[in-house]
Design goal:
193 residues; mainly beta; Porin; eight-stranded antiparallel beta barrel; 2 helices; 62% strand; elongated; Outer membrane protein beta-barrel domain-containing protein; signal
């Protein structure tokens, strides 16, 4: 019975947390974004998707540093396949308090830098080198530990190949899980005692 009461109290405390609790020092962000989803149901038989898994640690309240991996694919009937890839570091800064428009929502800025490439099949454009991106986003916390987000980013790829510089503006959607770090877990345990 004591264990059940402890679990119930922890759950009530967790539900009562605002969006600030997820972005405290010591917590961890794990999730990803997807963009350019096209299942090509028309005659062109196009398929495209861009996936970006991420993990970051909050080094200070509102500031997270971590890494990302990116993989994109675009295929179409009669056209060479285009692939994109990347790996690197990311940084996030969450602004202000909870937004008044949507309770439990936060604006943030995200920047990345790493190695990447964008290559089109035989005879197509090829660029491999430094990949960077920057842009604003909005995260809505559906629960104290789960955020749904949208992110608008400028992505640049200066590098080597037959195309020297490629860039684009992309809108992506994401799903992030915010896990408490050891400091937060210890604080909850001490509050319960």
């Amino acid at each position: 019975m004591k264990k059940f009461t402890l679990c119930l109290l922890t759950a009530i405390l967790g539900v009562g947390l605002s969006a600030n609790a997820q972005i405290q020092k010591g917590n961890v962000l794990i999730g990803g974004n997807f963009a350019d989803l096209n299942l090509g149901l028309n005659g062109a038989k196009v398929f495209s998707v861009d996936l970006t898994p991420k993990a970051a640690w909050f080094i200070q309240d509102n500031i997270a540093l971590g890494g990302y991996v990116n993989f994109g694919l675009q295929t179409a009937k009669g056209v060479p396949t285009q692939t994109t890839y990347g790996v690197g570091a990311l940084g996030r800064y969450y602004t202000g308090a909870d937004t008044e428009v949507l309770k439990h929502g936060r604006f943030f800025a995200e920047g990345t830098v790493g190695f990447g490439g964008e290559n089109t099949g035989k005879g197509g454009s090829k660029t491999n080198g430094l990949a960077f991106s920057v842009g604003p986003g909005f995260s809505y916390f559906v629960t104290p530990n789960i955020g749904l987000e949208t992110l608008l980013k400028y992505q640049g790829l200066p590098g080597f190949g037959n195309t020297g510089y490629q860039n684009k503006l992309s809108l992506s959607f994401g799903f992030q899980i915010y896990l408490p770090g050891q400091h937060t877990a210890n604080k909850i345990k001490s509050d319960i005692k």
